[in-house]
Design goal:
The chain is α+β, with helices and mostly antiparallel strands. The protein folds into 2 domains: about 1-25 and about 235-290, no CATH class; about 40-225, no CATH class. Helices cover about 20% and strands about 20% of the residues. It is built from 4 helices and 14 strands. The strands form 4 sheets. Strands 6-5-2-1-9-10 form a 6-stranded mixed beta sheet. Helix 1 packs across helix 3 (about 250-260) and helix 3 packs antiparallel against helix 4 (about 275-285). It starts with a helix and ends with a strand. The structure holds calcium ion (3 copies). One calcium ion binds next to strand 13 and helix 3.
Amino acid sequence: MKDSGLRVLAGMSVSLIATELNMAVAAAVAAPPAAPPAFHFMQIDQVIGGVNGDTTAQAIQLRMRFQFQCFFGNGARLRVHDAAGANPIILAQLDQDLPGCATGDPVLIATAAFASHTVPVVVPDFVIDTPIPESYFAAGSLTFEDAAGTQVYWRLSWGGDGYTGDTSGAIVNDDDGEFGPPWPGPLPADGLQALQFQGGTESTANVDDYALTPGAAVFTNNACERFRLGDPCPWDCAFVACQDIDNEVGIVDFLILLASWGETDLACDFDGGGIGITDLLELLAHWGPCR
Ligand SMILES: [Ca+2]
Ligand SMILES: [Ca+2]
Ligand SMILES: [Ca+2]
């Protein structure tokens, strides 16, 4: 009886994988065919300007909107602009191809000081050499663009009416090329929350597309490793694909724990000795968002 129940649940997790594969295929079919493999179909997924007031600790996470968008060797960069859209500063040059190249794969760019705030210690894909100045926090604009700055592929502006600069960007990621109006608040820097993309697959307007994370943010690098700003949350142990990482102890973690019953050396084996009843009970006891 137990075994058949496990088989049903394991089957459910296989069907989740199948759903992921179908979505990946659908996304691949929907992808515009003309552009060569590059980095154009990219969104700014999550940003934090400081951690608990430490404004030297900054991180930006990108997300590939389609597959084959990991070819940064072609030359990309991140820039920030002040409240008037002027005085741009290059935060980071993204100048090497990355191995993770599927739809939804993340790219993590962080300052060296960000490492002292994450569990485990962050391993970013690229380093922010020059952080966003504090004077840009009230209102400003972050752009993901090619290395020459001739094309802005994604733009996140903040500060509401306090930002008076350019809000435009490429139509490959926003149908009308208008990424504004800006998100109304400042760039978050005083706590553990990040500004996170909430929209669909492409940009409509920053004001509608972004919100603060409900709790402490979790950042993910291109190797699918998670770095938390809050307390450790080992029960958020499983995902089918990198883009499933959700900072929540939920159904995916539950199903994969059951499907891996008895196995060792897996993340959901919290107390060692193979995945078993104590692991299951621990997971259930911590059900819900990681705090
Ligand atoms: Ca738009
Ligand atoms: Ca989870
Ligand atoms: Ca165990």
